[in-house]
Amino acid sequence: MNVEQAAKQLEALGNPTRLQVYRALVRAGHAGLPVRQLQERVGIAAASTLSHHLRRLILTGLVSQERQATTLICRAVYPAMDALVGFLADECCADAGCTTRNDAA
């Protein structure tokens, strides 16, 4: 992962509402959530507001959507989440000479 991609994803997650939406999708697992259920779970009254936040998460590759008949299913993109977390942790203590991340604790 490059710095620009990580910055875009972190910026998207820097909004409290988007972070709440993303966490709800991560908690939902690979099955994801229908938009209406996500809207209820997060407590966003206006569908257009949820749509705006989802769009930002989709553009950064953190969320995907799939239409199943008349239902739109939203899912966290776990490889993208793993890449972002890995990007943040890969160089943990690199300049301090640690051999494992647990050494820093």
Task: Describe the structure concisely.
InterPro entries: ArsR-like_HTH (IPR011991), HTH_ArsR_DNA-bd_dom (IPR001845), Metal_resp_trans_reg (IPR051011), WH-like_DNA-bd_sf (IPR036388), WH_DNA-bd_sf (IPR036390). The protein is of the alpha+beta class and 105 residues long.
Summarize the structure in words.
This is HTH arsR-type domain-containing protein. Keywords: DNA-binding, Transcription, Transcription regulation. This protein has 105 residues and is α+β, with helices and mostly antiparallel strands. It has a single domain, classed as Orthogonal Bundle (Arc Repressor Mutant, subunit A). Helix content is 54%, strand content 13%. The chain contains five helices and three strands, in the order ααβααββα. A three-stranded antiparallel beta sheet has the order 1-3-2. A hairpin with a 2-residue loop joins strand 2 and strand 3. The longest helix is centred in the N-terminal third of the chain and has 13 residues. The two termini are 26 Å apart.
What is the CA–CA distance across the termini? 26 Å
Instruction: Specify the overall morphology.
Output: elongated
Strand-and-helix sequence, N→C?
HHEHHEEH
Q: Which percent range fits the helix content? A: 40-55%
Give the number of DSSP strands.
3
- List segments where confidence is low: pLDDT < 50 over at least 5 consecutive residues: none
**Average residue-wise pLDDT:** 91
DSSP summary: helix tally? 5
